[in-house]
Design brief:
It is a single chain. By secondary structure, the protein is α/β, with parallel strands linked by helices. It has 17 helices and 11 strands. The strands form 3 sheets. The chain has a 6-stranded parallel β-sheet with strand order 3-2-1-4-5-6, sandwiched between helices. It has a 3-stranded antiparallel β-sheet with strand order 7-8-9, covered by helices on one side. Bound molecules: oxidized coenzyme A. The site of oxidized coenzyme A (CAO) has 25 residues, from helix 1, strand 2, helix 4 and strand 5. Residues 16-19, 36-38, 72-75, 96-98, 101, 104-105, 124-126, 137-140, 169 line the site of oxidized coenzyme A (CAO).
């Protein structure tokens, strides 16, 4: 079976997480992704946080599956020549170097277009072109702080907090993948390539749009009715941190279940969906609340929402998070157990759907990684091991037309 992106050749000039997450996705869908790495060292994540001596770290293997690895020193004349040939033969080049690095290497956008007018150059930077911070190098948490996530995450009496979800890295990579596919679609019609640029700050903000919504509501009203600060607490002129409150019109909270004293994840998330009030009351054994005007509208419940949550916690006290969800699901109540990474790793449904997959690596052995979160009716995504450093160097050079003698000379010159 042919895969949707088969025939698309991608120069993967990415490192760490944001860029590799993007190109891994495209490789899963069938693109030929050639990861270009510095000889001897490679992507820094190959050696970061290793848990098996001399084997590539999970940080690398989980972001670079289904790719080929070409070592190339693009600062040598021979290395530049190889890159030039690759550019002429490829459809997409993806990079997430620090600002200006590609230009300093001699491969400006103008020059790349001269070499290959159909080329799509896709870049991740911390901040967008022309931004007053455009010169900054950026990692995940820097982007979460600059994109509005940190100031709005956490509890009101604690400091700004970053999320464990890679909102700055993998999320930016996903935005870039959408940009690349859009540019490829246009190229199919016009034959022309283009530059696709995504900044980590913009990608974080794109996921924090409801907080920009809230800033404007706060400016207009002076309060935000769905935040825990309302109606008993105080608001300043900026969107506060709302703890575990639901971000939309449905109040929700993380609630303790049986065993919370010793298990840090013995909790469920409980949502009080407005039209589910009657089933909630039935599930909790509180039928008298259904028609009580002190409880039967969202507005009436708002000033006692934490008393209601406290009551639900008393109902949960003798139920594990799984038992609780099994009861609540019968009443159509939106809820879920708070799952630990260990529970996720062993979840049979996630294994069955290919969302968590086991991969065999020649040096690391068997490891778990995430599979495609996007499911297709006509494509089964198979996750293969990430390449060893330079595993495909000779193969890629031969594809480019280099003879065995020329390849040996490139090795001698330490260009590959
Ligand atoms: N051959 C020769 N040189 C190479 C090379 C190769 N194959 N690959 C990279 N290099 C060179 C670059 O040309 C650059 O050289 P100069 O600075 O001399 O021009 C040098 O390696 C360093 O590249 P860098 O600036 O990208 O790397 P860094 O470790 O200093 O910074 C990072 C890392 C991530 C902070 C920076 O790349 C960055 O800000 N990227 C954009 C934002 C981003 O994607 N961040 C997310 C990372 S995931 O958390």
């Amino acid at each position: 079976m042919t895969k949707p992106l088969e025939g698309i050749k991608i120069i993967d000039f990415t490192h760490v997480q944001a860029g590799p997450a993007c190109t891994q996705l495209l490789a899963w869908f069938g693109a030929d992704v050639i990861k270009v790495e510095r000889p001897g060292a490679g992507d820094v994540t190959r050696s970061q946080l290793r848990h098996v001596k001399d084997a590539d770290a999970l940080y690398f293997t989980m972001l670079n599956s289904n790719k080929r690895s070409l070592t190339l020193d693009t600062k040598t004349p021979q290395g530049k020549e190889v890159l030039t040939k690759l550019i002429k033969e490829s459809d997409v080049m993806v990079e997430n170097f620090g600002p200006g690095a590609l230009d300093r290497m001699g491969f400006t956008w103008q020059y790349i277009q001269e070499l290959n007018p159909g080329m799509i150059l896709a870049s991740v930077k911390g901040f967008s072109d022309g931004h007053h911070y455009e010169d900054l190098k950026v990692y995940e948490n820097v982007a979460q702080c600059a994109g509005g996530a940190a100031s709005t995450t956490g509890f009101w009496d604690g400091p700004p907090t970053v999320s464990a979800a890679a909102l700055g890295d993998s999320n930016t990579g996903m935005h870039l993948a959408i940009g690349i596919l859009t540019a490829l679609h246009q190229k199919n019609r016009t034959g022309k390539g283009q530059k696709v640029a995504v900044s980590m700050q913009d990608s974080v903000l794109n996921l924090c749009r409801v907080k920009l919504r809230d800033q404007q509501r706060l400016d207009a009203l002076g309060y935000l009715e769905e935040y825990p600060q309302y109606p008993h607490g105080e608001f300043s002129d900026v969107v506060p941190r709302g703890g575990n409150a639901g971000g939309g019109g449905q109040p929700g909270w993380v609630l303790k279940c049986k065993g919370w004293e010793t298990d840090p994840n013995a909790y469920i998330y409980f949502t009080i969906q407005g039209h589910a009030w009657a089933p909630i009351c039935k599930a909790l054994g509180k039928p008298e609340w259904i028609d009580d005007p002190a409880y039967n509208t969202a507005e009436a419940r708002q000033d006692k929402i934490f008393d209601i949550f406290a009551f639900i916690e008393s109902w949960l006290a003798d139920k594990t998070k799984f038992e609780a969800v099994d009861i609540l699901r019968k009443f159509d109540i939106p809820c879920a157990p708070v799952l630990s990474m260990k529970e996720i790793a062993n979840d049979p449904s996630l294994r069955k759907s290919g969302t968590v997959v086991e991969v065999d690596h020649p040096k690391l052995g068997k490891y778990l990684t995430v599979g495609s979160p996007i499911k297709f009716s006509d494509l089964t995504v198979e996750v293969t091991a990430s390449p060893l450093l330079g595993q495909h160097t000779n193969e890629v050079l031969a594809d480019l037309g280099y003879s065995q003698e020329e390849i040996a000379a490139l090795h001698d010159a330490k260009a590959v």
